[in-house]
Structure formats: structure tokens, C-alpha cells
């Protein structure tokens, strides 16, 4: 699932498209999977409302992409497991959308287009989603900001206001294993399976260690690792070990920087021990049993 760095990459690139899409309106919308439209649930109503609305701002909250539109509307897209937004031009041939341009958009992973917006400058935004789990919602803007879902999101880890003191405060209010806590969107927004593994490896903390067992020194290491890893991943354009692609269809560049995620059976870059993969409830955790020992 795209996490904070991948979603932030998409948002930054959407804000810098050539030609720009800020100030551009929605001309039309197509889908072959109306179930991904969660609000309003009737696709024809969704289509009627969004047509003619202009894009005023594109921003991120947690793993959500938000388009602020004219007339006090906001379009929310959560890419879920395999979704990624693409920018380009397509034509509908033999029941499929085919890119008009050569290059990364031709890759198979970018061909699972189930939602496509045509803008009034003839450019398009497409959502490629192999598993078809992505969520799309159209809100009145003030209702979105005040929604239970938004209010329940934890603080943004890369914001300057999220100091070590704030981190320590929100972490110590919780219980459970540190990996699960880092992935809880109501505690800290945007971190998932990939970056929780990378953060804990960097901090030399075992993913099974409980929050109430962490001292100030260990909490400081986690906080510093979180800032470092997430910033580095955003700068690299995200991780494309699975389905994520940038709006151009290209892969993100974090993969060579990956230290532990999906490296089970390989040597630890720090100490040479063999990386392990274990289950924490329904999620995987990758860690070095030597560097990240529970002792």
C-alpha cells in the first residue's frame, strides 16, 4: 500500500504537472468499477457534481490525496493496496484505455485503469488499480475537514510541529508492540508496513518491543529514524517494490535505500546477521535478530 512518501510524491508531482492542472476543471469522468466511488455511492450523481469543478489545491493528509475544488467541494482519493494516479493522455480501444505516449505509461502495471478523469485542457488523470480496492469520495469541503475519519487521524510525522516531545506524548498514551503502534493511523498518520520496518531497523529497535518497555533514549532513536527515513523516501520518490508508480508511470527511487523490508534471508547491512520475517497479527515484520534484539 502506498504510504506517506508515495502519497506525498504523487501530490508534489500533481502540483507541478506540465501543463499545470491547478485551475483546470473536470470535463468528464469514466469508470468500469462504480463500487470504488464511496461518496456519493451513485456514480451518475458523482459524475454530475464533479463535472465543471475546478482544481484549486492538491494536498495530502495521512495516506489520502485531497483535491480542493471550486464551489466548496473536495475530492478524496485513497489509493489503498495497489492504486496509483497517473497523468497523461489515453484513448479507449477494444475495451481498454491505451496511453497515447511511449514510455513508462505503457508498462503493464500502469494498464489497470478503472477510473479516468478528463480535464478541460484535454489532459487526463487515471487511477490504475490492479486489485480495485481504491476509495474515491466527493465531499463538501467543510464536512470533510470535520468528518470523524479526518479528526481521528494522528499528527503528520514530517511537520515541524511534530516535535520529539509531541511524539513521546502520543506514543506513551498507547499500548502494544511498537511496530503496530507506528502503523496505527490514529496515533501517527501515514506510516505503514514498509517504513515501520525501515524506521525500526534504523533505530535498532525490535518490532515486538512494547511501548511501555521503551526508554527515552530508544524513543529518541525511533523519532530521529522516522524523520530521517520518511524524508529520504520522499526525496527518492517513494518505494516501487510492488505496484506503486509515480504520475509519469515511472518507479520511485527508494528501493536501493531499503535496508530490511522484504530482505528476509539476506544479510543485515549493519552486522551481517540474517534478516528475519515474522508475523505480527496479520502483518509482516522484517528485522535483524542481532541488531534489533529484544535483550
Keywords:
295 residues; four-stranded antiparallel sheet
Give your account of this protein's structure:
The protein has 295 residues and is α+β, with helices and mostly antiparallel strands. It contains 8 helices and 13 strands. It has a 5-stranded mixed beta sheet with strand order 2-11-5-4-3. A 4-stranded antiparallel beta sheet has the order 1-9-10-6, with no helix packed on it. A two-stranded antiparallel ribbon has the order 7-8. Strand 12 and strand 13 form a beta hairpin. The model has no long low-confidence stretch (mean pLDDT 97).
Short summary of the structure?
By secondary structure, the protein is of the alpha+beta class.
Output mean pLDDT. 97
Largest beta sheet: what is the strand line-up? 2-11-5-4-3
Helix content: 25-40%
First-to-last CA distance: 32 Å
Strand content: 15-25%
Which class do the helix and strand fractions yield? alpha+beta
Largest sheet: 5 strands, mixed
Globally, the shape reads: globular
Explain the layout of strands and helices.
Blueprint (H helix, E strand, L loop, with lengths): L3 H11 L11 E6 L5 E3 L3 H8 L4 E7 L2 E6 L3 E6 L4 E6 L1 E4 L2 E4 L13 E7 L4 E6 L5 E6 H5 L2 H4 L12 H9 L5 H6 L9 H11 L12 H21 L39 E5 L2 E5 L8
Parallel strand pairs: 2-11
Antiparallel strand pairs: 1-9, 3-4, 4-5, 5-11, 6-10, 7-8, 9-10, 12-13
Helix pairs in contact: 1-8, 7-8
Amino acid at each position: 500500500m502506498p504510504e506517506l512518501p508515495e502519497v506525498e510524491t504523487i501530490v508534489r508531482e500533481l502540483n507541478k504537472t506540465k501543463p499545470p492542472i491547478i485551475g483546470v476543471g473536470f470535463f468528464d469522468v469514466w469508470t468500469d468499477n462504480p463500487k470504488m466511488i464511496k461518496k456519493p455511492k451513485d456514480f451518475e450523481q458523482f459524475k454530475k457534481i464533479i463535472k465543471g469543478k475546478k482544481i484549486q489545491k492538491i494536498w495530502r493528509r495521512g495516506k489520502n490525496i485531497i483535491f480542493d475544488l471550486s464551489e466548496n467541494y473536495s475530492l478524496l482519493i485513497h489509493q489503498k493496496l495497489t492504486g496509483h494516479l497517473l497523468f497523461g493522455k489515453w484513448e479507449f480501444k477494444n475495451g481498454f484505455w491505451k496511453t497515447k505516449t511511449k514510455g513508462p505509461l505503457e508498462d503493464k502495471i500502469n494498464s489497470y485503469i478503472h477510473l479516468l478523469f478528463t480535464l478541460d485542457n484535454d489532459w487526463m488523470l487515471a487511477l490504475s488499480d490492479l486489485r480495485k480496492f481504491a476509495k474515491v469520495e466527493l465531499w463538501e469541503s467543510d464536512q470533510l475537514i470535520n468528518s470523524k475519519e479526518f479528526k481521528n487521524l494522528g499528527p503528520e510525522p514530517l511537520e515541524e510541529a511534530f516535535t520529539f516531545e509531541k511524539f513521546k506524548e502520543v506514543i506513551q498514551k498507547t499500548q502494544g508492540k511498537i511496530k503496530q503502534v507506528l502503523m496505527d493511523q490514529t496515533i501517527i498518520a501515514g506510516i505503514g508496513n514498509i517504513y515501520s520496518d525501515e524506521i525500526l531497523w534504523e533505530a535498532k529497535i525490535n518490532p515486538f518491543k512494547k511501548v511501555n518497555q521503551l526508554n527515552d533514549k530508544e524513543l529518541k532513536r525511533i523519532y530521529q529514524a522516522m524523520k530521517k527515513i520518511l524524508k529520504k523516501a520522499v526525496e527518492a520518490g517513494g518505494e516501487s517494490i510492488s505496484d506503486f508508480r509515480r504520475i509519469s508511470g515511472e518507479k520511485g527511487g527508494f528501493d536501493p535505500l531499503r535496508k530490511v523490508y522484504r530482505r528476509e534471508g539476506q544479510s543485515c547491512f549493519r552486522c551481517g546477521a540474517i534478516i528475519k520475517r515474522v508475523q505480527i497479527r496479520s502483518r509482516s515484520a522484517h528485522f535483524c535478530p542481532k541488531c534489533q534484539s529484544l535483550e
